[in-house]
Amino acid sequence: MTLATAAGSLPAQAEGERAPMVLEEIMVTATKRAASTQDIPVAVQALGESSLENLRVDVFNDYLLQLPGVSSGGSGPGQGTIYIRGLASTTPNLTTAGVAGLAPNVALYLDEQPVTQVGRNLDVYAADLNRIEVLPGSQGTLFGASSQAGTIRLITNKPSFNGFQASISGGVSFTKGGEMSEKLEAMVNVPVIEDKFAVRGVFFADVQGGYIDNVSGVRTAAESARFASSTPRPNGVPTTDGFQAGADFSGVRFLEARNEHLVEENFNDATYTGFRVSGLYDFAEDWSATLVHMRQRIDSEGVFFIDPELDDPENLSVERFSPDSTTDDFDTTALTVEGRVGALQMVYAGTYLNRDTEQTIDYTDYMFVGQYLPYYICDASVTYPGAAAPSGTCQAPDLYVGSTTETEVWTHELRFTTPEENPLRATFGGFYSSQTLVERNDFTYPGSINAESFTPGVYGWPQNGALPGSSVSDPTPRPLGVIFFNDITRTDKQLGFFGEVTYDISETLSVTAGARWHDVDVRLKGSANSSFFNFGGEDVNAFGTNLDTQFDGTQVINGVAVPKGAEAKGWVFKGNVSYRPNDDILLYVTYSEGYRPGLPNRPAGAGGGAVPAVVRTDEVTNYELGWKMDLFDGTVRFNGSAFYVDISDLQTTIFDPTVTNLFFSDNAADAEIKGVEGDINWMPDAVPGLMISGAFSILDAKVTKLVGASVAIAGPGEDLSYAPSFQGNLRARYVWDISDDFEAHVQPSLTYSASSFSDIVLINRAQQDSYFMMGMAFGVRNDKWSMEIFGENLTDERAQLNNNLVFDRERVSINRPRTFGMRFGVDF
């Protein structure tokens, strides 16, 4: 379906007379052929260029708000995870950002380039985009792994031979209780050789002011899970009694972690900067090459979640005891060659992506679940087993993590299409990708340097280091205080061959059959280690893991031989029947399959064998009935679909210290999703210049069967996560002339989402409240420049985008409070 809005004014029919507005027809390549959204029997939510402009879409969360049925979890810029139609289990935490993370089940594309990544999707800034295409439902035949719930495609504007073009746009906005934000974007298009070679470039800088305060607080190890009795978590699920719960700690000196030096208002600011340059060269008849290079950097400070126990409507706040910062850089280069080989249209797309992230995260909250934490920051006399009246000193629990990732991705796709006018037509080709992710996480406990260790008379813990024989990227000993670390390389390789064939049985009836053979291999190597190892322990299963031995087929854990890696190999299929009774109505039914590869587990065999060595591939079967209708002489457009999704072995990520101190993954449950989604656009004849648009999603996403996960999962009949039972939006745009040269517009908008859950793992499961938001914009423009004033989130709603209970304390990621702003644009 399409979320079309009114296009800009068409050329005047007569001098001084503005042409009528029309429903925007968006050309998409959802089937890897260019076609109007109204002409393809595929569910497509599309935001065209004018819609993106009208809706002020810049970053990840902007366009998600406009797409019912599409939701996200995450905790800040560059850390979002996309979900479609409620096919979700959990949202990755910082320590599952890469090597231990599940592959996403929604594929993200930038033009022809898949930029899907484990743990952290690219947060691509929406500069100079032609459109955003969202393909809900399994797209496994054409788009491969990680497209089991759907595919999102960001399509950029290409260089044009039609003369010099340039534009500048920018704006400033003010957030209630927060800092000012400002942005600037510039584009230039230059035909270098007439009808042969053109270049297009875009630059952007967007400074997003903060709106969350880091407030003063105090922490001591006395609050550690080791010393605490069982209490209800915020979701009501009780915690586990600490190993030393009930002991007399009156003889223990607990040193305080204080954060006065970090107290700051509006500390969660973020800046997006970057550019994209592309060249289009027609080097022969029917042959062209497009080369695109993009670079983007995100710099953010602070965190984008609050502590609801500290919160009041006027002051969004959290307590952090170490600096939080993220730098996220990526460069990508893509070459697309298009041409004709006989009757076949050929497309080759080859891409390279390099991404580097550096992150420092306050880890003090870990104390609320880390039963072993006092071993490392308290004197041995405090944690000595069985001591009824411990004595000694516990250092301050100001913990932090330093995390770096280095990612390289190569992809190649070669495909062919037969002529569109033939009654029998086909799309077929091959795909290969190779992704290498190197991740280093240093979990630093500064208090461990001064704490008395288990060895009598020896103070402080020794430097941590890699397990012998492991293939780490940094073999040097870690700095003092690094109690745990990960230095792991993950490789994901995918090979696939695909094809779809469509046959027109008659002028009104067509059938399509598609298939894809795939072979995906996921492997780990490196070391995950505890400094406890350096006291002479050799039990790598308990205190560390040499993944080189674990995943070369030689390691035996709890009597079980661990396989080399995780592999997904086999076929997925698609079938479609479409019926067009007339030019204005298209009906279709679709059967499609999707898959997501599994992965090896770092702590395989932990928890008495509870952690599986390898997580199984989860699989999806999608059944869909869809319709596309242009009604009442083209003044009403109603697109929609009803669907049923069957899910087997749904994967999830788990943190449960009673099993292991490392995050791990498991197959949680079978599930089913029933739903209806649609959008309607209406241009009433009685009010020229008015466009009313609405969209909705209704979901019933339930667990149907537990499949033996190592921890308690939401039971049969309970909701999946990130699956609101209803989401919808409604907006109107009214455009009128105010002079011969100028037109004005006003655009109110409403957005609503029902409540949802944040996880299917019971200890981490929290309910996220429903929300309702309003927006308003008013502007004027002519053929050269435009100006608009706008208000967003006028209801000042605290929309809960992600609710994290991983450390037994509620941390809620929220939207930006009420914001007013002004923006401008100039075309040259």
UniProtKB/TrEMBL annotation:
SUPFAM superfamilies: Porins. GO terms for cellular component: cell outer membrane. Signal peptide: none annotated. The keyword Repressor does not apply. It is found in: Cell outer membrane. It comes from the Bacteria. GO terms for biological process: iron ion transport. Residues 324-794 form the TonB-dependent receptor-like beta-barrel domain. Residues 37-151 form the TonB-dependent receptor plug domain. It is a multi-pass membrane protein. Its main location: membrane. Keywords: Cell outer membrane, Ion transport, Iron, Iron transport, Membrane, Receptor, TonB box, Transmembrane, Transmembrane beta strand, Transport. Belongs to the TonB-dependent receptor family. This is TonB-dependent receptor. It comes from Paremcibacter congregatus.
